[in-house]
């Protein structure tokens, strides 16, 4: 075994000179490829999509208040937002554990699939028993969206 700092005698003055081991100096971006940037790009697009979707939800709620406030009251509309918040709490736990066990990429794909399913259900919501059925279906669909 050799010492990482090898010393030898300088022939002229008898001083010890230290030779440092070679260090490979590369740029931080040398190992970055288009494939390694794909998950970051997907997360960025998903966050922009979620922001847009929450904006749409707010607009939909304003329209529902204008149309159905006399029939359903504000309690049903507030329940929609509560389902979204409860879904977010559940989603943080589920996807946090999922990310730890199966990895970030699989967790990203699973969350995108859940978001898509919730968005389709929310879009397809219709009330079998009038406005009350519509708002309950939307509450469940928004809970699924909140999981993401």
UniProtKB/TrEMBL annotation:
Q: Which regions are flagged for Basic and acidic residues bias?
A: 1-12
The keyword Cell division appears for this protein: no
The residue range of the signal peptide is none
Alphabetized Pfam families for the sequence: Sugar_tr
List localization entries: Membrane
Per the database record, which ranges form the Major facilitator superfamily (MFS) profile domain?
A: 41-148
User: What are the protein's UniProt keywords?
Assistant: Membrane, Transmembrane, Transmembrane helix
Region annotation (Disordered) ranges:
1-31
Which top-level group of life is the source organism from? Eukaryota
- The protein's name in its UniProt record: Major facilitator superfamily (MFS) profile domain-containing protein
């Amino acid at each position: 075994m050799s010492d990482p700092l090898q010393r030898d005698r300088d022939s002229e003055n008898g001083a010890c000179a230290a030779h440092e081991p070679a260090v490979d100096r590369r740029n931080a971006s040398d190992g970055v490829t288009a494939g390694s940037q794909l998950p970051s790009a997907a997360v960025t697009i998903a966050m922009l999509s979620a922001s847009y979707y929450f904006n749409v939800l707010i607009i939909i709620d304003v329209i529902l208040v204008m149309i159905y406030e006399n029939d359903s009251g504000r309690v049903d509309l507030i329940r929609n937002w509560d389902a979204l918040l409860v879904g977010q709490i559940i989603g943080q736990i589920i996807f946090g554990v999922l990310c730890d066990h199966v990895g970030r990429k699989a967790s990203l794909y699973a969350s995108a699939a859940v978001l898509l399913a919730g968005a389709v259900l929310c879009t397809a919501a219709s009330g079998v028993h009038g406005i009350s059925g519509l708002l309950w279906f939307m509450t469940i669909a928004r809970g699924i969206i909140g999981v993401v």
